[in-house]
Amino acid sequence: MSRIVADLGFACLKNPIMPASGCFGWGREYSQLFALNILGAVVTKAVTPEPRPGNPGPRVTETPGGVLNAIGLENRGLTAALTEELPWLQSQGVPILVNVAGRTEEDYVQVAEALGDQNLLGLELNLSCPNVREGGISFGTDAKTVYKLVSRVRQVCPLPLVVKLTPNVTDITEPARGAEAGGADALTVINTLRGMAINVRTRRPVLGNVTGGLSGPAIKPVALSMVWQVATAVSIPVIGCGGIAQVEDVVEFLLAGAAAVQVGSAAFADPLLLPRLVSDLESWLEREKCSVEELVGAAHS
Amino acid sequence: MRERKAVLLAHETLTEDTFRIVLHAPEIAAGVEGGQFVHLQVPGFSLRRPFTVADADAETITLIIRRQGRGTAALEQVKPGSRLAFLGPLGNGFRPLPGQGLLLGGGIGTAALILLARRLGSCTLVMGGRSSGELWLDQVHLPPSVVIQYASDDGSQGFAGNLVQYARKNLKPGMWVAACGPRRMLAGLQELLRQRKIPGQFALEERMACGLGACRGCTCDTVKGNALVCKDGPVFAAEEVVFS
Ligand SMILES: Cc1cc2nc3c(=O)[nH]c(=O)nc-3n(C[C@H](O)[C@H](O)[C@H](O)COP(=O)(O)OP(=O)(O)OC[C@H]3O[C@@H](n4cnc5c(N)ncnc54)[C@H](O)[C@@H]3O)c2cc1C
Ligand SMILES: Cc1cc2nc3c(=O)[nH]c(=O)nc-3n(C[C@H](O)[C@H](O)[C@H](O)COP(=O)(O)O)c2cc1C
Ligand code: FES
What we know:
The complex is a heterodimer. By secondary structure, chain A is an alpha/beta fold. Chain A has nine helices and 16 strands.
């Protein structure tokens, strides 16, 4: 087996590099720059049952070492995803994780059920979304809520389920265990950290939504420590995400216990970053005479 | 559209806060349209910065940049001979309409109209600003068939007043308008164009992350709903834009 293959338990990927949800659309735009099938997998923008217009602008800004965004899960809804986006992406010869979001448990169930018979690597449930039934607190903050949501989706959808955790919690191992108990096949750690920026000239928040999610190199140490914790707490594979910008970052996440990684914001500074990480990782493994498999979790021993 | 690296050939100061950089980019220089932009990497920053291709000749593209915050301040320090990475050309440029073009640039927005003026050959290009010290268009060489005019709020150069007032006075039937500038100016122009039944196109600005249409960071409101400034724009038909 090649050194760079990544084992997610429910599937093997040709390499552990994938884009993070929301930073890559459905891959169409980036396919003008490189062939998508050189990636381990593609993770799509969030899909909700109905189209969502998203938040008022400004929606993105830069903060030191990072990016703040409040897109508000703008997407064209389940029907457009099924009829227009997915068929195209499925023709690109790359495994697909469809990111799923919602306002209620039923939203997740509805999208997961509708996608259940598609040829996909799996679904990635984005649990950072505010739960309208529970006063807008995100689904991912309470272990019981996570357990219930994941087990309900599990019942209606035969596809592998990856649960993406929010870092905006006191102890991320609790929702991680809830997801595992609910039947998750893997976990993505982490989504963005809540943050904000204020324009001192106008004395108003920069983002139209006031607060947003912080991503990029600034959050890497936080993400890494959460991957470390979660990898110790559960026995399903972890996909590391947060601030990855160079091959050494990828290796750090593997060593912390991630079986694969996602790269979001850093690809804004360099749109060719993803293919470069694949080839840099190949060279790194060659030079160090080791494999991804040997690196995963190696820092724990 | 491709990712490229270009050598910075020249760097010149235009006003106290505005400078011009020339990049060696022969692959795109001849084909780029007025209103299209590049997404430029500023070394050390997490997001790229979008800039209109202000001008182009056979081998080079010119960006005219107003110092705004940290990214543009860092760009001002980049020395000739350095290489800068950019994606481009991106977005849709202006689509010349029949009739005499009236090109209205509010401040740095004028940068979006220079290449259009050059390609049109014959048109009127007006730069507006608060006072003469902000107006740098005299430092751009355009053919004599392009009529250059100025408008200043304090009357220190050219027409005394803003560009909406200028247009109210100078718009004639049979003209079409291309404009770029502050939203308030564009909103005022939109109203005027509607009253006079004159067609126009506006180049918009919005904060961007990917610059390609993937992240939905740069949406603006149009009569057809959300549109992406990077991919559907940055140039939109004047009547399509919803200013609120
Ligand atoms: C299509 C397009 C073409 C443009 N062409 C030009 C041009 O030719 N000349 C020029 O001087 N400026 C142009 N701008 C504006 C220019 O991109 C911003 O002034 C610049 O990004 C500010 O960066 P900063 O780090 O100095 O400012 P900061 O305020 O420190 O930037 C913080 C963040 O906000 C973003 N941002 C701030 N202001 C703007 C803005 N007006 N538009 C978009 N993003 C912004 C930055 O990119 C950065 O991500 C254009 C913008 C767009 C969208
Ligand atoms: C512009 C933008 C949009 C995002 N949209 C989504 C989304 O739709 N669903 C999701 O689960 N995460 C979304 N995220 C979070 C990323 O997938 C990722 O978890 C986060 O950005 C941390 O990784 P990074 O530091 O490599 O960017 C988004 C992030 C950004 C910057
Ligand atoms: S900047 Fe990403 S969609 Fe326009």
